[in-house]
């Protein structure tokens, strides 16, 4: 599927107001990467946003639901100003806390129908080992904000392009444009944030590989945080799937032939019985 002819150039994305569903996914990705080439200290108009990101602003201990929601809304505003041109959160219905079934068993989810970022707080708390659960929530927030950005400002055509052809892919949204932009934001954020942010980029891409049966290049895997072991595992998984698919195809072929032979044999047997009678 080709690139939309009505998309706007990435240069205009950075300078003016964003058009809803007006950009090809590759332009959105490029615009984020290009802006991140300029340090936050030089491009953020609001100095308190930079200070907020640099200090981390992570309160100690468990927070009440109201405190946690306010904490994450503040972070969403800061991240929007820093990486999404300050245009994203005003186009969403904000953040909503959810349970496992609402997020399909994930840490969080972008709900395009409700324009809402869903976060499973209890899951973050249960999985937080050696790290503050609130940092995990910030990481998931960045991850889902990126999905929201592509969904709200990307054209429907470009959003449905297969990852193998450079698209995001509508099944999970973890294709190359999302992964490249996410890697850029993660790198920039880790330059100023006092804690390590790991957006689970390559782990997310692996879902896309399964859903769309495609394999990134080694340079892409490296850019998205894959280790040599990850690359080997992905290659072996791909080979394993291919062999399994061949086995299934071969098994189906021989099973069909066998069933046809049995059916033909039974038909001939009935014919001979009819003749004898």
Give a description of the structure:
Keywords: Membrane, Transmembrane, Transmembrane helix. The chain crosses the membrane at residues 251-272. This is SprT-like domain-containing protein. The chain has 277 residues and is mainly alpha-helical. The protein has 2 domains: 10-226, no CATH class; 229-277. It is 60% helix and 4% strand. The chain is built from 12 helices and 3 strands; from the N terminus they run H-H-H-H-H-E-E-E-H-H-H-H-H-H-H. The protein has helices at 10-15, 25-36, 40-43, 47-55, 65-83, 121-127, 133-153, 156-159, 176-192, 201-212, 218-223, 228-276, and strands at residues 95-97, 108-111, 116-119. It has a 3-stranded mixed beta sheet with strand order 1-3-2. A hairpin with a 4-residue loop joins strand 2 (108-111) and strand 3 (116-119). Helix 2 packs parallel to helix 9, helix 5 packs across helix 7 (133-153) and helix 6 crosses helix 7 (133-153). It is elongated. Residues 1-11 and 239-250 have low confidence and may be disordered.
In which order are the strands of the major sheet placed? 1-3-2
Number of separate structural domains: 2
How large, in whole angstroms, is the Cα Rg? 25 Å
- Overall pLDDT: 83
Structural class: mainly alpha
Give helix % range: 55-70%
> Termini, distance in Å?
64 Å
Give me the strand/helix succession: HHHHHEEEHHHHHHH
| Cα shape | elongated
What is the percentage of strand-forming residues? Answer: under 5%
The biggest beta sheet is recorded as:
3 strands, mixed
Quaternary status: single chain
Low confidence ranges: 1-11, 239-250
Task: Tell me the total number of β-strands.
Answer: 3
Tally of alpha and pi helices: 12
Organism: Hymenoscyphus fraxineus
Keywords: Membrane, Transmembrane, Transmembrane helix
Protein name: SprT-like domain-containing protein
Transmembrane segments: 251-272
């Amino acid at each position: 599927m080709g690139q939309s002819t009505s998309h706007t150039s990435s240069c205009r994305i950075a300078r003016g107001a964003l058009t809803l569903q007006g950009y090809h996914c590759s332009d959105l990705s490029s615009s984020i990467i290009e802006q991140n080439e300029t340090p936050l200290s030089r491009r953020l108009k609001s100095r308190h946003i930079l200070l907020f990101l640099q200090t981390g602003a992570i309160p100690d201990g468990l927070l009440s639901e109201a405190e946690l929601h306010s904490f994450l809304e503040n972070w969403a505003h800061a991240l929007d100003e820093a990486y999404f041109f300050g245009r994203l959160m005003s186009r969403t219905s904000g953040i909503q806390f959810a349970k496992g079934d609402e997020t399909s068993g994930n840490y969080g989810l972008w709900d395009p129908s409700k324009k809402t970022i869903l976060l499973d707080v209890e899951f973050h708390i249960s999985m937080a080992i050696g790290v503050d659960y609130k940092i995990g929530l910030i990481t998931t927030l960045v991850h889902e904000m990126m999905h929201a950005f592509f969904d709200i400002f990307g054209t429907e055509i470009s959003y449905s392009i297969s990852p193998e052809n450079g698209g995001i892919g509508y099944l999970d949204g973890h294709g190359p444009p999302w992964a490249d932009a996410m890697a850029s934001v993660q790198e920039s954020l880790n330059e100023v944030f006092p804690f390590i942010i790991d957006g689970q980029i390559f782990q997310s891409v692996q879902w896309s590989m399964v859903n769309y049966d495609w394999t990134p290049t080694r340079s892409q895997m490296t850019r998205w945080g894959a280790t040599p072991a990850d690359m080997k595992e992905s290659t072996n998984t791909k080979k394993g799937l291919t062999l399994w698919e061949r086995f299934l195809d071969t098994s189906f072929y021989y099973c069909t032939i066998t069933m046809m032979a049995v059916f033909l044999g039974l038909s001939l047997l009935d014919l001979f019985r009819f003749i004898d009678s």
